[in-house]
Amino acid sequence: MKKQRLVMRTVILILLAAAVGYTLYANFTKDEVERVAKGKIAPDFVLTDLNGQKHRLSDYEGKGVFLNFWATWCKPCEREMPYMNNQYQNYKDQGVEIIAVNVAESDVAVKEFANRYQLQFPIVIDKDQQVMTAYGVNPLPITFLIDKNGEVVDVHRGEIPTEELLIELLEKIKP
Amino acid sequence: MNEVKCECGHVNPHGTILCEACGKVFEEQSNDDKKLLDMRYEGSARRSQTYNKTFIDKIWNFFSSVKVGVWLIVITLVASALGTVLPQEMYIPPVMPASEYYEDQYGWFGKLYYDLGFHNLYSSWWYLILVASIGVSLVICSLDRVIPLYRALKAQKVTRHDGFLKRQRVYGVTQLNNSEKPYDTIKERLKLKRYHIREEDGNLLAEKGRFSRWGPYVNHVGLIIFLIGCMLRFVPGMYVDQILWIREGETKVIPGTDSEYFLKNEKFTVEVYDKEKDKEVFNKALEKSGMVAKNYQSDVVLYKKKGETVAGEEAELEKVKDYSIQVNKPLKFEKFALYQVDYKLNELNKMSFKLINKETEKEFGSLTVDLYNPQTEYELEPGYSVNIISYFPDFQFGEDGKPMTKSRIPNNPAFVFEMFTPDKPEGERSFVAIRQNIEPFGDNEYKMAFNGIETKHVSALTVRKDLTLWTIGIGGAIFMIGVIQGSYWNHRRIWIRRKDGEVIVAAHTNKNWFGIKKELQVVLDGTGIEEPIDQSIDEKKVNEEKVG
């Protein structure tokens, strides 16, 4: 009788604790759930770059992809661009591709920006914000580090303040 | 721990105050004591305070206390109220980070408010734990009370211990030798009053409305289901609440639908009441308040994606339906509803310019720029053409004095044009913004003259999916059933005990004592059995006399 009572109480308390624990966990991850997070497979996309060439994420299987979302009006994005430009060729040779996704701006504005900074890496424009929605991007800038299997290894929110940090991030996805 | 065996033979759980079967008082004072019984939970062994040995028991007993439950509710109430003193983080304008905003707007109080985490109260861990603790307390309190109460009510015998009857609030003894006839009359009358009658050895227990005792517990079950409903909101896929800003003519993917549905905004309309056109009835009101909105409407087309495409790919869309979304008339599809929630009128969409000679003002053709996606080259009259070198949709001068854009929305478009004319084949540059025309070299022969704008309205829709509503609804309904069950019925019991030429009448109800006394009056009327008295009134009088 006594034993049974203890077992019953334990079971009920465990059930209640599980429900509370789950609610807390879900509450604190609710912003992440809809988004692409660490450990998930990066959603595939096809976007066209400034030269009219199509880039499909799944075509980069076997390579690391440094996927950066940005806009010309976003100051932190602007600041990290030169670092990316500096490292682009070096890491491309090592199998890491840098792709910059501009969020729904006009070709004119993006081209002008790319010319101003002499950007080498492919810049694709997400015209109708489908890719942005699929990746749950907000706010800019945000960078997804995708490994050779298409899995998101890390997500860097906000500016990449130093070139050292950029290199560190790029190293993570070297195949 | 030993169980308690009563002299009537019934075995009670440890901690019982009144025997479940006969009502004999176990604790301290003798059965002859004059004091009235505390009949809550039938004197059953609730929450067996004595099982306090293990860690589990300690937690259990903590939550089993009603006092703890009440405090949890009070603390939650106070915290909830504090959360409304200043606006929550999600409602502050995005002009500066929350950490600065509160201090800037509300001074030291704002800073304290922010530091204590009240700016994001309702999803803070401690607030959620408070609410969850109320839920836990609810479950454990209820279990600890409803089970012993059920046992006690089920085990009760017709023949109750004298001490139990004597210490009921309504109690009376009549000396009567031949009680057969009045007894039968009373029994018949009680039956007419819809009492359930049980008899044993010439004694009687009449009972009705026992199910009203379960009211509070039914109510709690409803509350718990309600809380589960709230919890379900956090489960992915159960709840979507997003905003979709969509320009006229634009087709956009609907967020939350896994890129399966697309929406096109054909037209957005705002209508206000018009004195001329609308009924005369409205005139007075309109005079008083001026502009009154009549209608906000988005005419939309819903599309479903055909086949598999990846994001960014032009999807093949299949039209599902046309619909006009108005306030409180959402577009519904599958489990989703799109509500009209906001709008922005006359957003710039296209801008026209004409190329003119500054001196002669002669025109050499015009061009129209799509502000969301401008072309770069425009051919005008033969020999004349214009290129856009730079474009700033939301123009302002940056800290470094260079033109820049604040956003991608064309709130204040500015351009750098390069004009090619037969006189100036190498091109002239000019910077053109609204009411501004800057020439970097100051000696242009031609200029781009403003030639009109085209605007579009933008509509904001709330995308809502809520699969938790039915759970919350069922919880609410059960909650109300419990309230009704507990408030509109009373659990009434009347005991009649015959012994040695005495007839004892005692009664108990969980509420509405006036009602049961009235009922007894009718039942006993003319039977020769005296109406029992309300001992609580008696007791009060005695106390008052003592004090006096």
TrEMBL record, chain A:
Localisation per UniProt entry: Cell envelope
Positions of the Thioredoxin domain: 36-175
Keyword Ligase in annotation: no
Identification of the protein by name: Thiol-disulfide oxidoreductase ResA
Matching PROSITE patterns: THIOREDOXIN_2
InterPro entries named in the record: AhpC/TSA, Thioredoxin-like_sf, Thioredoxin_domain, Thioredoxin_ResA/DsbE_sf
The keyword Transmembrane is annotated on this UniProt entry: yes
Domain of life: Bacteria
UniProt keyword terms in alphabetical order: Cytochrome c-type biogenesis, Disulfide bond, Plasmid, Redox-active center, Signal-anchor, Transmembrane
Classification via Pfam families: AhpC-TSA
UniProtKB/TrEMBL annotation, chain B:
Pfam families: ResB
Residues spanning the membrane: 68-86, 125-147, 217-235, 467-489
UniProt keyword terms in alphabetical order: Cytochrome c-type biogenesis, Membrane, Plasmid, Transmembrane, Transmembrane helix
Domain ResB-like residues, every copy: 66-424, 443-520
Keyword match Chaperone: no
InterPro entries: Cyt_c_bgen_Ccs1/CcsB/ResB, ResB-like_domain
Its membrane topology: Multi-pass membrane protein
Location within or outside the cell: Membrane
Keyword Membrane: yes
Highest taxon of the lineage: Bacteria
Name of the protein in its database record: Cytochrome c biogenesis protein ResB
